[in-house]
Structure formats: structure tokens, C-alpha cells
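Running this now, will post back.
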Amino acid sequence: MSAGRGAPVSARAAGGGQPAATRLTAERRAQITEAAGELFGRRGYHAATMRDIALRVGVSPGLIYNYVEDKEELLLLVLDSLLDAYASSIPAALAGLRDPLARFAAAVDTYCRIVAERPEATLLAYQESRSLRRSLREHIKRREVETNALIADCISDGIAQGLFRPVDAELTAYRVVMMAHGWALKTWRLAGRMTIDDYIADSLEMLLGALLTPLGAQRRAEAAR
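Update: finished.
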């Protein structure tokens, strides 16, 4: 069994200051994860083989097992990499923003764009997370709750300042997430009708129309002048 199998994938990723060999291993693992996500999305998790993934990356089928234990670990890596993107990109987008309306819009925009960039990973989360053993499914669920909280916190801030109605922040965050996932789930139709920019703008208009108090609507109008 590969080291740290039961730990979150992000805890096993190489970071700055680590030995060159460790960084190279992490880079190769990232390449394998990207290839796996593409092949799982195109062929299906069960149809894609470790040999297919190894050949896509340009390593021998036997060598791939130096980086991952098995196909289940690869599925976990793909799903975790998507959650990593939310966990790192949303806070970065919020940095320096103090207005709750601007923070909410930035969080929604960032989440949607990650979905649009990684539709295959989003679809895999819906279609294949059940293929993971229970402990790994629970890990993914915990991380989902954590990343959704980044949006829920923005909603809570808006409520606290009287800009949003007193809604259930977590439930509303899930509605935002489901709206964002809609781009990946129905891109075959939506992409032919609008750009991701249009989709985000239209979705924000609908969300804010339901959330804003009179004070929030006034603040938004002032910001748009």
C-alpha cells in the first residue's frame, strides 16, 4: 500500500522546499491524475484501464504503480484535485474584498469557472464517487462541506450586514453549487446557447434577486453606478 493512503490527498502532495525527487514525484502524480480524469470522463471509470492511463502519460504500465496504488486511488486523486481547486482559488478570489456582495459574486464566479474548466471531474463526482470505499467517500463528503462553507460564509456575512434575507446559509450555498454544477451536467445544451460568462451573469442575477434585501439592492445599485 502506498504511504499515507488513508490521509487526505492534499496532505501527501509535495510543496515548496521539498527535495527535488519528491517534487518530481508529485509532478508525475499530478500528470497521472490529469490523464486519469480525462480518460475516466471520456470512457467511464470502469472502462478506462491503468494501462490506458499509463500510455496517455507516457510511462510503462508497471511504472505507474510507483506513483499510485490502484485505480481507486486515482479516482480519489481526481476528485480531491477538484476540491483542492475550490479550496485554494475561492479564498484567493476573495482576498482584498470586503463588501459582502462583491465577495459573494467572486465566490460564485470562481466556483463556476472551476466547474467549467474541470467538467469531467464534476461529472465523476456525481457518477463514480460511489465506487470509492466508504472511508474515502466520507473524506470527499467532508471536503465538500468544507469547500461549500466558503460560499456559505459569504452568504452569512451578507445576512449579518442586512444585505441578504435571513436564509439558511448552508442550504443556499448548496443551491449555488448545484447551479454551478449544472454547467457540467448540461454543457451539451448550455454551451451552444451561451458562454460561461453569460451563464455566471445570469445565475448571479437570479441568485441576488432572491437574496437581496432592499438595503442590499440599494447597495448593489450604488456599486453599479
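The radius of gyration is 20 Å. More later if anyone needs it.
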